Amino acid sequence: MIQLEHIAWQAPGGFSLKNISLVIPTGTYAVLMGSTGCGKTSLLEILCGLRPPTAGRILLNDRDVTHLEPRHRRIGYLPQDLALFLSKNVREQIGFAPFLQADPEAASLVTSLATELGIHHLLDRQPDYLSGGEKQRVALARALAARPSVLLLDEPLSALDEATHAEAAELLKNLQTRHRLTVLHVTHSRREAELLGQMRLRLEKGQICPEN
């Protein structure tokens, strides 16, 4: 479950998020829409712990994580630019979190996720030699390797061509079900929202409202 209680945040010289309260039930695939620059990415970063809110509380599965470091929140985050490490191969990308946490099952987890996402044959390849769809799958595997209960996706399908888009959307639905994730997916696409969103929301003038 994702629960925001009266969250506020002010961008320097720009927009603000005002008194945002929201509950996304456990296991729900929620989609958040809104115009460019309205604060959707900032809201995801507040949830992740990359930006501190100026007011309010963040609860994940009934646990107050407002002041916890990102690594202690059990969140998987897929930023819009994917943020792959340029100097690491696919195996190292996926294994970043579990090896950092000295997870004894790190190696088998990397293999399992790579197989699940169809990128096992790419494990020794560098990011420069991956297609856009392959990079997306690597970034997803890396997010899932942290064993999250919550997955945050920032425009995850925006860089994909039409042929790859439908396949990637189906992959996200299947991953959410198999890993029992609560998902918050940011998009500009109404088609994506209708296809994936069990719960559809809009961020408008710094506040959350249901999407019609």
From TrEMBL:
Residues 2-212 form the ABC transporter domain. It comes from Prosthecobacter algae. SMART domains: AAA. Keywords: ATP-binding, Nucleotide-binding, Transport. Gene3D superfamilies: P-loop containing nucleotide triphosphate hydrolases. It holds the Pfam family ABC_tran. This is ABC transporter domain-containing protein. PANTHER family: SPERMIDINE/PUTRESCINE IMPORT ATP-BINDING PROTEIN POTA, SPERMIDINE_PUTRESCINE IMPORT ATP-BINDING PROTEIN POTA.
